[in-house]
Amino acid sequence: MDPDRSFERKYNRNGWPFLMLADEKGKIVYQCNNLADNDKTLMRHLHEISKTPRKPEIRPVGIVPYRQCTLENNGEIEKTLRNERFTSIACGADEDIYAVFTAVEDGNSNIYLRIQKSDGQSQTIPVAATKADEYDGTVITDTQGKAWVCWTSNNLGRKYNIYLSDLVGIQNNAPAVLVSQSKEDAMHGRMAVDASNNIWITYYKWQKIKNISRDKEVYVRKYANGVVSKEIHISPEDVSEYEDHTDPTIAILNNQPIVCWSWDFHKPKGYTQEAETPTIFARALNQDSTPQKIFHVSGKNIDMTPVLDACGDSLWCAWDSLGRGKKSLSVRKITANAPSGATISIAKDVVNTCNPDFSFYNNTKGALTWSQTKDGQKWSLWKADYDIEKKKWGDPSKIITEGNPRFASCAYDSLGNLWLAYSIQTDNGREVIVKQSN
What we know:
Blueprint: H1 6-11, E1 19-22, E2 28-32, H2 40-50, E3 58-61, E4 64-67, H3 68-74, E5 82-91, E6 97-105, E7 108-116, E8 122-128, E9 134-141, E10 147-153, E11 161-166, H4 167-171, E12 177-178, E13 186-193, E14 199-209, E15 213-224, E16 227-228, E17 232-233, E18 245-253, E19 256-263, E20 279-284, E21 295-296, E22 302-311, E23 314-323, E24 326-334, E25 339-350, E26 352-361, E27 365-373, E28 380-387, E29 392-393, E30 397-400, E31 406-412, E32 418-426, E33 429-436
Parallel strand pairs: 5-33
Antiparallel strand pairs: 1-2, 3-4, 5-6, 6-7, 7-8, 9-10, 10-11, 11-12, 13-14, 14-15, 15-16, 15-17, 18-19, 19-20, 20-21, 22-23, 23-24, 24-25, 26-27, 27-28, 28-29, 28-30, 31-32, 32-33
């Protein structure tokens, strides 16, 4: 990923894709944009490199082999450090807190669920912990307070798909529901539940372009009464194949599913000319599950990774935005068919942001949490409160600084307390913390 094209500007202004060959000292000795099989210049450089014998010491950590210097840099010579990231949190009707996260252990990526009981007890159970690659888990609770988890896995082979299970199924080790059922890779599953207790799952799926390249398209499916519906194509089908669509998110407004995603937008005919690539777009579904008209949420910055949540008769969307070399976290209110009001910059002039997340409580208050860094190294966790009476976001405040907190999520419990799940750096690696916000 080179979203702001800084790598391209530094190393190759002819654009992507390109190949770059560096020697052991980091000096670039060869570059090209379109590699040909008979490229004699590249072969000459490779031949010169191969003359010097190299036998780096490599030691396996789990199933992954690493060079000794890599392990030394990470402090993993004596033991393998744990890596817990990508949290998602939800609160049950019984005041239990559910936090899902991805853990890399012994060279393998697994999904775990941490249950924080109302009596202070805590339990962590595996959701998907096999030899397959399992990551990017998210959790919601339905109208009855039951927890549901979806995640990405290549459990069926090399291709990735989206899986779904409820807490009872997880505890009983029951087979998960295969949601995406894709012959190509499907990723980034996100969920929402409607008033009828139906689970809506959105994701993006790769598809081939004439067996040469692949693009990404956004889809949604409904899970009701143990059955997964037909796949509904959310991203537009009347534009060029190279218009990529990725990182969808979904929420329910007045019992109507609405999906937001990031579109690698090249101003095709019939669509707005007030936006540039990439842009956040949204689309609602009718009662018969047919898609409504697409509309753009953001504008002419580089806008990616949206999140979405409902508050009263509207939705709030947040996304990562880059404009004129400066990064920000932007939010905007939307309805089912158009944006409402102006875009608001919550975090301004930062090097990067990480995992923005909304939570609203009974249409009386709301919160937006995220991590940010201004120097590219030291991270802190921030929060901005929403005053529903004044319809205004308050000034952001720094709430956690120790341990480079990242990958945070937030949720209000039934009593109106805000809970956080986030990952911090410890002597044992990255570990997930679940706690009530002050």
